[in-house]
Amino acid sequence: MITTRFAPSPTGRLHIGNLRAAVINWLYARQQGGRFLLRLDDTDAARSTQAFAHSIRADLAWADLSADAEVRQSDRFPLYEAALARLVASGRAYPAYETPDELDLKRRLQRAAGKPPLYDRAALALTLDDRAALEAQGRHPHWRFRLDTTAPVEWTDLVRGPTHIDPASLSDPIVRREDGGWLYMLPSVIDDIEMAVTHVIRGEDHVSNSAVQKQMFEALAAPVPAFAHLSLLTSTEGELSKRLGSAGVDALREAGIEPIALVAFLARLGTSEPIEPFVDPAALIASFDFNQMGRATARFDMEELRHLNARTIHLLDYAAVADRLPAAIDAPAWAALRGNLATAADAAQWADILASTIAPPAAPEDADFLTEAAAKLPPEPWDATTWSEWTTALKTTTGRKGRALFHPLRLALTGRETGPEMAALLPLIGRERATARLAAAAAA
Prior knowledge:
With 444 residues, the protein is of the alpha/beta class. 43% of the residues lie in helices and 11% in strands. It has helices at residues 16-31, 50-62, 77-89, 100-112, 128-136, 185-194, 207-219, 249-254, 259-268, 281-287, 302-313, 331-337, 351-355, 367-375, 386-398, 403-414, 422-429, 431-443, and strands at residues 3-6, 35-40, 69-72, 93-96, 142-145, 153-157, 161-165, 174-176, 199-203, 226-230, 233-235, 298-300. The strands form five sheets. Strands 1-2-3 form a three-stranded parallel β-sheet. A three-stranded antiparallel β-sheet has the order 4-5-8. Helix 3 (77-89) crosses helix 6 (185-194), helix 6 crosses helix 7 and helix 9 (259-268) packs across helix 11. The chain starts with a strand and ends with a helix.
């Protein structure tokens, strides 16, 4: 079964770059009838918090990116211990005793000599007596994975296509610190093996990590998942996706962005497909295709997202927003208003216009016309044809037409220069309120 995973660290709130990875993992799993898993990479006990874990779950739930299961790395340390022991036994992991200061000095000397700052594998030359002597001094080892540098690491990436990395250009990665804490590389591989992950989909900044981890899968005699590396994001100011803090998921939610609009935006960002509104996730899922994804850096444009959000609002049924609307905005009112809204919250400003009193602007030059308009209001019930019938009658009796006919009526009835079609609004305002507003405007 196709299985993807989203693996954020609960050390902060989700930002756009995080959520985009979640969206693509979720879309592909749902399209393939597979599983989408949430893994909280919380090995950093000092920075990981329950509050951030809760916010990640809340943001995914808001976006309707439901996970089929959830695991936490902090519950899985025995798995990592056992795997590291296997790698040590096979010669693919080894202890090293340099301090951070000693490693930093080595790197500085290498750079000064014009060499890449790679670990020199000095620890591999240590004898058992050397190790014992270092530990007698109070030193504790950190553990490194030993890369096989005899051949390039190659795979066919679902986004990048044929990809190869020279492992000799990489340092043997530290997988466990001297204090016993786990770093990212090895636990991630062990979890992917245990969770039967078939596709690892993440940002392009993980390409070299994938080369290392491919060797880890092979060293543990496990199937290597398919890799897909998504292009990074920039903002309109050129910030990388990891620094788009101002575009956090919580901030977008508070700004009135619809979840389906955000998911659709992120699904199409950086692809050859048009960014267009969806109200049915099934249609978005069906349209997903890795072949449409480009390698060029994609630009996150907040104005483009707002525009898509408005187009999405214009398509949403009342049921999708009913729990967020004032009581005065019922299904007919929503149908009349949605085409002029940028967010669902914008409907609230029309609640009083439709169901309460307003203060129409003074229009002394139109007083006689508005008095005549009140007198010509047809009896109820009203429907979508009432506005046309009423204004046609006024055109005949007053000789007005165009803006001179319609604009004073809109101002008197809504207090607004622009807005939804009056043919839809007039029945919602009702005859009693319309008569009172026309009279008030004539007398103002």
